[in-house]
């Protein structure tokens, strides 16, 4: 098939598909705030961490999750949270034993109940009549040692609250000391970007424009921005004209005369090789405009 015939077929296809269901480039959803959340329930939900077992919700003895069969469990959750007493952690309470135990906030017992977080996060537990901002109440206790426990529901609570704060490690398995999360920051700043909970060190698409970072490096586009700030800012891979709108004439027609071109040929343009396979094709590259004609970014 002659190149002109291939392109004509491509153009007809793009025009027909311009009215198809849109791929939602600019959507909005709230990113998780990473705050610690705790409650007392019979069993913890998937993703929650068991911190402590209790014989009742008031005037109770305590036990560890592995050492006690009590029917009330202190469950906490936030990204990257664990119950280990190693690594980055803080002791919630110490217990006189793994079951049927009294508790202490002064560290006087040997058995520990802990909260742990990833290496780039922080955890801190305090005790007092009220919990500080962003601190979650886990239980209340009758004293600093030899104490009973109760929940934090406001009925039959003890005067001293056990309050913990845990910041979410947005890359629990990858070092990310700055905790930078570009797409969440862009969304928080008012940009039409869908933020997520993944920090830059473990996020393959830092600007959430549906093109992974390695693809944008290959194309030469801005991997930390998904919409041009000016006519010289090549931020959105599909927006060849950098005018914040996808059109047949200014964007899709850049494939005219280039279908089948490979690296090193006169018609080759790496900027159009969206799938990084070394060849400009209808299916692998040009059809990414399917349903996208008329889409804009802000």
Account of the 3D structure:
By secondary structure, this protein is mainly β. The chain has helices at 3-17, 182-188, 213-219; strands spanning 37-41, 49-54, 62-63, 72-77, 88-95, 103-104, 111-117, 123-128, 136-141, 149-150, 160-166. The chain has a four-stranded antiparallel sheet, with no helix packed on it.
Q: Radius of gyration, rounded? A: 28 Å
Oligomer: single chain
Shape from CA axes? elongated
Along the chain, the helix and strand elements come as HEEEEEEEEEEEHH
Give the beta-strand count. 11
The main sheet orders its strands as: 1-4-2-3
- Count of runs of 4 or more consecutive helical residues: 3
First-to-last CA distance: 40 Å
Q: What can be said about the biggest beta sheet?
A: 4 strands, antiparallel
Overall number of structural domains: 2
Strand residues, percent = 15-25%
Low-confidence stretches: 15-32
What fraction, in percent, of the residue positions are helical?
under 10%
Structural class: mainly beta
Average pLDDT for all residues: 87
Outline of the structure:
The protein is mainly β and 298 residues long. The chain has three helices and eleven strands, in the order αβββββββββββαα.
Descriptors:
4-stranded antiparallel sheet, 2 domains, 11 strands
Record the SSE blueprint:
Blueprint: H1 3-17, E1 37-41, E2 49-54, E3 62-63, E4 72-77, E5 88-95, E6 103-104, E7 111-117, E8 123-128, E9 136-141, E10 149-150, E11 160-166, H2 182-188, H3 213-219
Antiparallel strand pairs: 1-4, 2-3, 2-4, 5-6, 5-7, 8-11, 9-10, 9-11
